[in-house]
Amino acid sequence: MDFSLADGRIFFTNTQERFFEDGNVDIRTRLPCERRRSSCDADRKFTVEEAVEVLGVGWFQFRLWAITGLFSMADACEMMLLAVLSPELRCQWGLSQTQVALITTVVFIGMGTTSPFWGILADRYGRRNNLMLASVVVWYFGLLTSFSPSYFWLLLLRGLVGAGMAGMPHGFTLLTEYLPQKYRAKILIFGSVCWATGTMFEITLSAIVIPRLGWRWLLALSSIPCLAIIVLFRYLPMSARYLVGAGRKEEAFRILQSIAKINKTQLPEGELVEEMQDQRGHPKLLFSRSYLRTTLQLWVLWFGTALTYYGMVLASAEILQLHNAKTAGGQTCKCSGLKTDDYVSMIFSTLGEYISLPLNMLLIDVIGRRYTGAVNFVGCSVFFLLIQVHVSQEVLTFFIFMVRGFSTGIFNFVYIYTTE
Fold first, then answer.
1. Contact 31, 16 (CB under 8 A)
2. DSSP sequence for 291-329
3. SS3 239
């Protein structure tokens, strides 16, 4: 027991005792922590997560948000490209509906088959290296697609673009690692601005380029966001969590020091240590008793999320063409491309993604992640059903607008919920 003697009374205090073989005890009072600060600081330990909480939000996070936002923008451009590319290729190459659908399908096949490998690579070599490779793959094969000599080569190259797109979400994860919990949800939701901007950029670019220069130039110009990422890559930091887990604590500490300098704050005193984890980065953990239920639930959530959002984005051009056919008395033309009114409708419906941001920023902290997701799923379902009703193009555009807004809210929820 730690104690000291004073005037015959026992007081509990900070003491240090040494026991000798003859039974005597040498009792020495320990100095308070303030009087031996150097030794106390050496005993203190902090993790990357704790350091991020202390460093707060500043210029570093805003710069990181802008760079990782380019990954989201590039992803959105490549995805929205599919919606406007299909009508052009169907006309110029005389493709069947099945062949047109396969142009989109191969992208998701590339994404689905390579996603597990991107995760393994990120755990082994770090998210920054992963993102660099993914951006180069998307840019290079996206540019090559513009030179496709045949339908087969188009499918092959778009499949490789999809394989690269599977690595893009690691930018979202990297941003999450450097955000304090208090501001994390709001900043991540605001990141949807980048995705919506990428979608808007692609539709506007399509409306300008396709009628004048054709689809090949559209493919080439759509690779610009990935090229911008490669140029700005020097400003993207390594994952401090990865570095600590890989035993490279000094590198991680230097990154945290640079964040403190940029944000004009201070790191906690003490030694940087790794968070206590039994196992790291093995896919079998997803099916362990601790995580199996969460894994299955997330699979269902992601299936519904992808079905609603990508289904609406990729089908919007077809929906507008079918509406035009009904308005014209049911007469369809195989080579009917998108008209100016169709591009305007797609641009207006994309605004729904901006409108949903303030609502979700409010709800996700007030009613929580799960209920916010439920509200968006219900709203999306209602307006998806209303699209089946034959109405004017203005009303149809409003229905698509609402679906895009709610489906974006679903994406916000599921990304944050999964990452956390």
1. no
2. THHHHHHHHHHHHHHHHHHHHHHHHHHHHHHHHHHHHTT
3. coil
Using DSSP's 3-state secondary structure scheme, residue 361 falls into: helix
Separation in Å, CA 171 to CA 100, 233, 383:
31, 12, 31
Token pair belonging to 150: 């045949």
Place of tokens 């009303």: 395
Range 241-257 average pLDDT: 83
pTM, two decimals, is 0.72
Tokens representing 104 are 């989109």
Q: How far apart are CA 262 and CA 64, in angstroms?
A: 12
Q: Which of 143, 313, 141 is nearest to 216 (CA)?
A: 143
The residues near 185 (Cβ < 8 Å, ≥ 6 apart) are 361, 364, 365, 369, 416
278: DSSP letter: S
Give the helix/strand (H/E) hosting 382: helix 369-386
Bridging pattern class, strands 15-19 and 25-29: antiparallel
Least confident interval from 151-165, 261-275, 329-343, 397-411: 329-343
Q: Partners of 11 in the beta sheet?
A: 4
Q: Is the pLDDT of residue 277 over 70?
A: no
| C-beta of residue 260 within 8 angstroms of C-beta of residue 34 | no
d(C-alpha 286, C-alpha 283), whole Å: 6
Q: pLDDT at position 51, please?
A: 82
Exposure of 340 by Cβ count < 10 A (0-12 exposed, 13-18 middle, 19+ buried)? exposed
Question: Quick one: tokens of 248?
Answer: 């490279």
Strand (E) or helix (H) holding 272: strand 271-272
Instruction: List Cβ neighbours of 229 (8 Å cut-off, separation of 6 or more).
Output: 67, 70, 71, 74, 131, 135, 139
How many CB atoms within 10 Å of residue 136? 16
Both tokens assigned to 122: 């990120």
| Residue 242 buriedness (CB in 10 A; 0-12 / 13-18 / 19+) | buried
User: In 3D, which of 387, 376, 385, 361 has the Cα closest to residue 411?
Assistant: 376
DSSP string, 328-350: TTS---TT----HHHHHHHHHHH
Contacts of 84 (CB under 8 A, 6+ apart): 202, 203, 206, 210, 218, 317, 338
Return the SS3 of 390. coil
Max CA distance (Å), the chain: 109
